[in-house]
Write a structure and sequence with these properties.
2 domains, HU Protein, Chain A, alpha+beta, three-stranded antiparallel sheet, 3 helices, single chain, about 100 residues, about 30% strand
Length: about 100
């Protein structure tokens, strides 16, 4: 199952009694806060769920698979996620 923003909006509408418009605004605002925090280099810790972090990756050697040519891949920032122990336990118990 893929969980989409529309699913989160519908869940807020169904379970909290918020209007669809208010639910959509809340979901969009939460994701906007997460994006801005990661862009500025801050971590996002959601207790009981996990931690999102933006980290820097150093330049590294790579290879063009089509031509076999060696090249250097530039430095970049990536987002990583680390599951909380509580969530990890729930996932392992369910699987």
């Amino acid at each position: 199952m893929t969980l989409k923003k529309e699913d989160l909006t519908q869940s807020l509408y169904d379970q909290c009694g918020l209007s669809k418009q208010t639910s959509k605004v809340l979901v969009d605002r939460v994701f906007e806060l997460i994006k801005k925090a990661l862009e500025s280099g801050d971590d996002i810790l959601i207790s009981g769920f996990g931690k999102f972090s933006a980290r820097k990756k150093a330049p590294r050697k790579g290879r063009n698979p089509a031509t076999g040519e060696d090249l250097t891949l530039g430095a970049r920032r990536v987002v990583t996620f680390r599951c909380s122990p509580r969530m990890r336990d729930r996932i392992y118990e369910g699987g």
